[in-house]
């Protein structure tokens, strides 16, 4: 991706109306298959009082029968550039809120806003704006993807704006985010890369290896220095080779690494996803969207800085050379595909879309699972895993559709 983006048309306005059956009232969802950290519970129930899941509710609690459905935690997206026609990198505050709401409608109750490559002055200003939204609880923090990435593996980033990851520049972004920087993607083989990984680790920011041309050995060095995430594994990095295994082998084999996967059927062949999932294990996979403006908005022409993008049949590609330019994925589609196409269990899909990213963000005590004391961020799915209800912080973003 690149510094700025815009789309034809105007994003639809965000709206929010608490469900009348639960606005201000404790609620009990009953009869569903409830997916807990210990596994699914048939004919289970979830009790909500205020913004939290509780063990019990007052006698006036409103009962909602969701028999025949699943109740799972809200999705947590570590890597998301926009949606609803809006960019998190270049949109106004109103645009960003529309993009956030678009993804909430699709089940993402916690979202990290990702920026794309731009000049340092622009990115520091952007970090200040996004940090305010994080302070207000609209996003869970900021992910900087670029500008510290390899020109050999730049993807849809503007090559003219790339730079080496000198620690002083990395520190500028951390400081501009005012404690809200969650993750930074960098090509760790570039000059300053390892020192920047150490700097990020020292400041509690996830160092993610991505858009990299590193060798296997260089990747091992970066992991030893403190990197803990692989940015969209397989994409924007050298392929796995039998004599030159490159970063993919190093990232898959090390238990310290969580691998991001874009499960949209375009970025990864199902066999590649299966390889990653089963080699890393369910506890080391985080499904992400890497969504751009067109997510939840539609096909058409979009601009990513100086780079024009054509979105056709839901696939975003640069006009100039056909390079994939992010995705139009939403997490409800990623979940449904994981279970119905990739053959994952519901429990493993929940782990990859909820528990693991919550853990990485340091938020596992409040989100990522349906346990008493945690936020009432939950989803209702029917027997085909279609989304039928979204609750965030105890209020319905999408009221239950149980007919």
Automatic annotation (TrEMBL):
UniProt entry keywords in alphabetical sequence: Carbohydrate metabolism, Hydrolase, Metal-binding
Coiled-coil positions: none
Pfam families (UniProt xref): Amidohydro_1 (PF01979)
Signal peptide residues on this chain, from the entry's feature table: none
Region (Disordered): 1-26
EC number: 3.5.1.25
A molecular function (GO) term: N-acetylglucosamine-6-phosphate deacetylase activity
Class in the EC hierarchy, top level: hydrolase
All residue ranges annotated as the Amidohydrolase-related domain in the record: 70-397
Similarity remark: Belongs to the metallo-dependent hydrolases superfamily. NagA family.
Entry protein name: N-acetylglucosamine-6-phosphate deacetylase
This protein's encoding gene: nagA
